[in-house]
Amino acid sequence: MMTVMLIDDDVPMLDYVQHLLGQLDLELELAGAASGSEQALELFHDSLPDLAIVDIGLPGMDGLELAEAFRMMKPEVRLIFLTCYEDFHYSKRAIQLEADDYLIKDELTPQQLRDSVGKAMERFRGRRELLDRYSFQQAIERNREVLKQNFLKQLLSEGGEWDNILLFGERLGISWKLPYLRHGFLHIDAASVVGRYRYKDMPLLHFAVGNIAAELSSGPAPITALMDGETDIYLLWNTKDRSVPEDELIRYMMSVREKAEQYLKVSVRGFYAAEAVPVRQFVETYKQLAEYRDHSFYGQGLPAVMLKPDRTFLQTAESKPEKEKAMLSLALEEDNAAWIDLAVSKLLQHAETEHWAPRLLKEAYADCVRKMASETHGTAEEAFFVHLSRSLRAEEAAHLTKRELWNLWRHQALTPISDLEKDIRLQAIDDFLREHVDRTITSVDMAEHLHLNPSYFSRYFKRLAGMKFTDYVNRYKISIAISMLRQENETVENVAYTLGFSDRAYFSKVFKKYSGKSPSEFKNA
């Protein structure tokens, strides 16, 4: 039996949909109905339904924002949206939320609703069956997996008898007859996990990716896949040639990555040592690879990376994240989440420019989350700090941090005032501007993001907002600049740099055009 919840501020429509559901003769149980956002959040939290049928045009917190909040509480929830309008950004955001359908109220028929609910039920059961299947496999393979993990521990115990350890491995189907091993590992990107699952699902996903890696490891060049820790799968490729090209290992990593994305919707990255080493040098190579884990932290986000030593990391930060922390306070004071994205992005820029040791950036991000938790009287998830410390890419750490900060921000202000005052059709555009406020955004960038023709977007936007897109972006940025300049010890140069302006002179020109004063005049007023 699948549970469903209805949300619509139009009570007659709510009753009509409830009536239709009762006529569908499907295995559905009504978990509740709500006519307002706050009531819906409370009801959803209490009942955690499997399916939510949501009106997009709710007052205050709209249906799309409400659905995002639902996904945070229950990532596997299925979504069907109802709306009075057909609009480009509605459908796009619905797709981003993986909605099962997007229905126009005036055109709603019993058959349409039956088809939409049926599709949602099928998808929900498919995902549940997938996780159940992996749970079942995990139960069957538990003893075998424990033995394989014990094999890895024995390999790392320098006091063990090597020949006996290899014999133990052969009994598990792990046979290394060739003289060399190419070491590597697969890392599950936690940022890709929390968008769809809960942190507590990570062990099950780790097992699932380990299964995929094991299934793909057979072939002309068999690769041993051993689960290591809680997010990594250690890889060992037995070869006869020390200088064997890494092509085969990369192809294998890419295959695991593609399967994990296809079946589990999570991202996996591969890392590997520079060359193969003698089998008996296992411990030294394992430790070296562990030491190099963070050395591609700021590099390109390639799916498979050779780990090399990097001795240039700065072990003590030259700048403190005080300004970024102040931005988090502004996010609360002004009810504007753009400050969160700005703070996290600026910290990353500082760390990348000064080449901080990854540990320093992770500590700064953790401090930001603790500060936001304190100011909102909320609680950050302990699992967040664990996975932040294990992140291997700067972008992974930044995404995890933004999500935790957004959760805390929503704890205090579920509906930003600025969103209430704006046309709902501009919110998708505002979201993109907020997330990229430190960049120069053109109408071409925005059109590409919305999958629209640039010329059409420019005409459409001017009709919608009553101004050119460039004016809209500049007004948006100058409103943030004014808030920043009100802060003590803030400089015009830093504000211009933070908001993505090429130089102070151009920033001053834009600022005066939209505020009536120069930045210096405003600062000294």
From TrEMBL:
It comes from the Bacteria. The keyword Phosphoprotein applies. GO terms for molecular function: DNA-binding transcription factor activity; sequence-specific DNA binding. It comes from Paenibacillus apii. Residues 427-525 form the HTH araC/xylS-type domain. This is Helix-turn-helix domain-containing protein. GO terms for biological process: phosphorelay signal transduction system. Residues 3-120 form the Response regulatory domain. InterPro entries: CheY-like_superfamily, Homeodomain-like_sf, HTH_AraC, HTH_AraC-typ_CS, Sig_transdc_resp-reg_receiver, Tscrpt_reg_AraC-type_HTH. The modification 4-aspartylphosphate is found at residue 55. PANTHER family: ARAC-FAMILY TRANSCRIPTIONAL REGULATOR (PTHR43280), HTH-TYPE TRANSCRIPTIONAL ACTIVATOR RHAS (PTHR43280:SF28). Keywords: DNA-binding, Phosphoprotein, Transcription, Transcription regulation.
